[in-house]
Amino acid sequence: MILHYSLWTVWCICTSTGYANEVGEAFRALVPVSMVWASYAVATAYVSADAVDKGKKAAVAHGDNPGKTTRIAVAVVDTFVWQALASVAIPGFTINRVCAASLYLLGRTTRWPLSVRKWTTTAIGLSTIPFIITPIDRSVDFLLDSSLRKVYGGGEKHE
């Protein structure tokens, strides 16, 4: 049997790897810490691949124009910094703290067995992910617009 993947399927699989560390953090109470760190490795690989992809697109878009190398570097750096903050560092920290607080509060306010508290914490962490994406993305845009993008004029914004 030959497997056939549509471009949409491949895009969905690749894009979801950007959320690997959030899922890893949500499962932290249930899995060995090495699996959580592995989820960060997967997310970092996605961030790096996206930055390289944006660099290649910038190279094609700018052809042989003067300043091509600078524009490629700006595209790669902007994408890498934006993705590292918006896809790895801030969401990972947020889910980690939500899960830690949930596990602590469940331990203080319920008489549930530890395994139930851990699974509930994981469910809370996973259900938090869709709600934090847009605010984090907008905050990182604001942060970069107010800092790094002023250095290079904001010409190559992450898309």
TrEMBL record:
Q: Does the keyword Coiled coil apply?
A: no
Which InterPro entries does the protein's record reference? Mitochondrial_18_kDa_protein
Keywords in alphabetical order, please.
Answer: Signal
Specify the domain of life of the species encoding this protein: Eukaryota
Give the GO cellular component terms, alphabetically: mitochondrion
The signal sequence is: 1-20
List the GO biological process terms.
Answer: mitochondrial fission
Protein name, UniProt field:
Mitochondrial fission process protein 1
Organism name: Astyanax mexicanus
